[in-house]
Amino acid sequence: MKYQEIREKVLEGAVKCLERELIRGTSGNVSMLVPDEQVVIITPTGIPYDKLTPADLPVVSLQGKLLEGNLKPSSETPMHTAVYRARPNVRAVVHTHSLFTLVFSALNRELPPMTPSSSPYAPVPVAPFALPGSEDLANAAVKALGQDRLAILLQNHGMLAACPTMERALAAAEYVEECAQVAYYTLLANNMNPLPAEAVKELRERALKGLAV
Ligand SMILES: [Zn+2]
Questions:
Q1: How far is the CA of 201 from the centre of ligand 1 (A)?
Q2: Bridge partner residues of 170 (DSSP)
């Protein structure tokens, strides 16, 4: 994929997050790897996503150095680039502050698989708190993701999806939020009842084969 095509996908992803109320204002950030060149296209900081055109999106190196573009890359660039460096199979990263992932991240509680659609991502662990934009946060996120997780919570901050495609990362952001909503309400009702482990295993296998969950 050429830069232009990837820039369009990144911006589309950010606007979708806004439309689905997974992010508010200029919070959250979205990026994709350009695999042939090992560079990253990421949303800029401080500008509403619906006011951007694809050409506005900065291109940064895997070390976070600005290579192209007039706008300042997202303040969470260190976290995005650290994930791409650590996980060669990741092509898209979506970071949101969706409400119920914020609630669970502030509870500092691993999110269990509550729904079939969350089973490829849950249980979702919580990376310990570190200041937004810091290398410490980048390191904590990479550690929590390990080698195969597709989504994590960031303590008192939100969630991060790291997936092979933008479509998958957006789905992760949406289904983990839905799972957090269900978990929270069932927790309030004092009967949080996650999916059985066997069902999660089977659903993950189906998801890997590309069957609908
Ligand atoms: Zn954030």
A1: 31
A2: none
Q: Which residues lie below 8 Å from residue 42, measured CB to CB, with a gap of 6+?
A: 10, 29, 30, 31, 57, 58, 60, 73, 74, 77, 80
Instruction: Give mean pLDDT, residues 7-22.
Output: 96
**Ligand 1 centroid distance, CA of 95 (Å):** 6
Are the C-beta atoms of 162 and 151 separated by less than 8 Å? yes
Q: Distance between CA atoms of 200 and 114, rounded to whole angstroms?
A: 10
Q: Which of the residues 12, 19, 37, 76 is marked catalytic?
A: 76
Distance of CA 37 from the midpoint of ligand 1 (Å): 27
For residue 135, indicate whether it is catalytic: no
Residue range 93-108, pLDDT digits in tens: 999 999 999 999 999 9
Which amino acid does the sequence have at 4?
Q
User: 35-73 burial by CB neighbour count: b if 16+ within 10 A, else e?
Assistant: eeeebbbbbbbeeebeebebeebbbbeeebeeeebeeeb
How far apart, in whole angstroms, are the C-alpha atoms of residue 177 and residue 41? Answer: 25
pLDDT tens figures, 75-94: 999 999 999 999 999 999 99
The domains of the chain are located at: 3-208
- Under CATH, which architecture does the 3-208 domain have? 3-Layer(aba) Sandwich (3.40)
Show the tokens assigned to 157. Answer: 């901050």
Report the chain's terminal Cα–Cα distance, integer Å.
28
